[in-house]
Amino acid sequence: MLAGRNARCVAFMVLPFIECLLRYLYSPPRTALDASGLPPQKSNKSPQIPSLLAQLWETCKVSQNVEAIDPDLVGRATELAAAGAFLASVCTGTAGTLVVSGDPGVGKTALVQRACASLHSPAWVLAGACLPLASMTVPFLALRSAFRRAPQFDGVAYPTLRTAGEASHDVPGRIDDWLDELCLLRPVVLVIDDLQWADQSTLDVLMYLIAGPPERRLGIVATLRSGEVGEGHPLQRWLADIRRMPRIHWMALGPLDRLDTGAQVSHLLGAPPHQTLLQEIFTHTAGNAYLNRLLVSGIPPEARHLPPKLPLDLRAAVLA
Ligand SMILES: Nc1ncnc2c1ncn2[C@@H]1O[C@H](COP(=O)(O)OP(=O)(O)OP(=O)(O)O)[C@@H](O)[C@H]1O
Ligand SMILES: [Mg+2]
């Protein structure tokens, strides 16, 4: 059993290099950007890799748990390049943290998902989201959902996050040790969505990880609704504290411009929008990707104007 465990660990360490080498040898020359101006999407499966190795690799690798990538993401070339550079530096051995902030619906989650899906080196992306629970606090909520997708194999034990009956200061150390081991095998990107709703225990663990060794291949990416962290919000202090820590990167995500709004609407309608319709949408949404999506739903592609009466819930969301 020990031999099997060792063999799998060795496979985890060696196969990425063999895969990279074979991808290099077998892949056609790449262009830096595709027609949309975005880096070409990385395919999980490469038909050029000899099938025996590909099968072996498939049995050992744990797929990135990036969910529901929006195939029609528009614009964001600069932000994707910046996020890609951050992730690349993580993969080459510099731990760091990226906080993506912006208005609700502006596209923070979509951007982070796309950036993680575009990673060029094999990495584990562990993604979890905080929730706006009102009547209770669930310790480590986002971390629990992120770690649920973690690779499970002998030798690198999944950390238990039980809190009852144990000193809570054990938990950050245990998570840190576990991530340390994972990072030796492959880069790890821990994505925490909607940090504004994080429970204190999640924030404490994140702080502990951020303060960890600089040279490990651990990236933390958090999204944050900036407008919701007002005076007295518990996160304010946490953000002020991490500002003083090294290797923290900030990205303030703005709305889409008119051109990119047009591209998003075009994708959603299945045809280029009439200019008057686009102008009305942009006037109402100011380029907020979520509001664009709400406004366009149910509109025929040939429409020249928004319907005179929007449903009430939509009016509340878009015209507020
Ligand atoms: N650049 C984009 N191009 C096309 N669609 C986009 C883009 N950015 C976001 N969207 C779409 O807009 C919607 C809102 O995006 P997203 O959930 O990423 O926003 P968010 O900033 O994370 O919002 P929240 O603060 O509510 O979490 C989603 O349906 C997403 O697919
Ligand atoms: Mg989001």
What does this structure look like?
The protein is an alpha/beta fold and 320 residues long. It has three domains: 61 residues, no CATH class; 190 residues, P-loop containing nucleotide triphosphate hydrolases (Rossmann fold, 3-Layer(aba) Sandwich), CATH 3.40.50; 62 residues, no CATH class. The chain contains twelve helices and five strands. A five-stranded parallel sheet has the order 2-3-4-1-5, with helices on both faces. The radius of gyration is 22 Å and the shape is elongated. The structure holds adenosine-5'-triphosphate and magnesium ion (MG). The site of adenosine-5'-triphosphate has 21 residues, from helix 4, strand 4 and helix 11.
Indicate the topology.
Layout: H1 2-26, H2 51-60, H3 77-91, E1 96-102, H4 108-117, E2 124-129, H5 141-148, H6 170-185, E3 188-193, H7 200-210, E4 218-225, H8 234-243, E5 248-252, H9 258-269, H10 275-285, H11 289-296, H12 312-319
Parallel strand pairs: 1-4, 1-5, 2-3, 3-4
Helix pairs in contact: 1-2, 3-4, 6-7, 7-8, 9-11, 10-11
Bound molecules: adenosine-5'-triphosphate and magnesium ion.
Magnesium ion binds at residues 108-109, 193-194, 223.
